[in-house]
Design goal:
Elements: H1 3-6, H2 21-48, H3 55-78, H4 84-92, H5 101-123, H6 142-165, H7 174-189, H8 199-209, H9 215-236
Helix pairs in contact: 2-3, 2-5, 2-8, 3-7, 4-5, 4-6, 4-9, 5-8, 6-7, 6-9, 8-9
Length: about 240
């Protein structure tokens, strides 16, 4: 497979001004945007309309729009991973350098923690038990939440590879496609796992709120699904001429 066809390669590290700094700043801001808007909506609708059926729709749309904006705003700067699942999965198939993975993960978790702090500043009160929009396994338990997050990680990375790194795709469609798969995935799995896709999105609010129920699900499951999805797309749907 040619380097052009593969899209982002192991040596094609996003850089701004010849350094990694700009890419890391973009990851911090992009992840902040995702968690502040998405998890912030969870808190806002929970406090304002705690039993409204439309809450699931509002949360799904908020996360989808946040990802869409982040991809269009920072895709050309850092790749707009804003998610450890995406970073690790791309590195696993040599679409991203392993040497940059720790820095990207640190930036993503920093952005998520800062966003959770901002949500706490806006909505928190002394003595209030506020989970800050953190995800948690639903009534079906951690096992099914794990399965749901594996599926979400798989679908997300397949869509990312298909729209953002494959030279056959229309580049302008990437943000919309990724945002829509996030929104749709959350809509389906919100009662089962909270629809995380993303360890930073889940652990940022957990760290600030001090509540870590089911944390291991969100650290392991999306990455497992994402890596499987990356290998499936990269090796079973290699770039080349479309079939006639």
């Amino acid at each position: 497979m040619s380097e052009a066809a593969r899209g982002t390669t192991a040596e094609a590290l996003p850089r701004v001004g010849g350094t990694l700094t700009g890419a890391l700043v973009a990851e911090v801001i992009g992840t902040f945007l995702l968690v502040f808007i998405g998890a912030g909506t969870v808190v806002a609708v929970g406090l304002t309309f705690p039993d409204a059926p439309a809450n699931v729709t509002a949360i799904s749309i908020a996360f989808g729009l946040a990802v869409l904006v982040a991809v269009y705003a920072f895709g050309h700067v850092s790749g707009a991973h804003i998610n450890p699942t995406v970073t690790i999965a791309l590195a696993a198939v040599q679409r991203f350098p392993w040497r940059a993975v720790p820095a990207y993960l640190a930036a993503q978790f920093a952005g998520a923690i800062l966003a959770a702090l901002a949500i706490w500043a806006l909505f928190g009160e002394p003595g209030q038990d506020l989970a800050l929009g953190a995800t948690a396994p639903g009534e079906r338990g951690s096992g099914w939440a794990f399965v749901a997050e594996v599926i979400l990680g798989f679908l997300l990375v397949v869509v990312v590879l298909a729209t953002a790194t494959d030279s056959r795709a229309v580049p302008a469609a990437a943000g919309l496609a990724i945002g829509l798969v996030i929104a749709a995935g959350i809509f389906v799995t919100l009662p089962v796992s909270g629809g995380s896709f993303n360890a930073a999105r889940s652990l940022g609010p957990m760290i600030v709120s001090g509540e870590f129920y089911g944390w291991w699900v969100y650290v392991i499951a999306p990455v497992v699904g994402g890596v499987v999805g990356a290998f499936c797309y990269d090796y079973l749907t290699r770039s080349g001429a479309p079939p006639e």
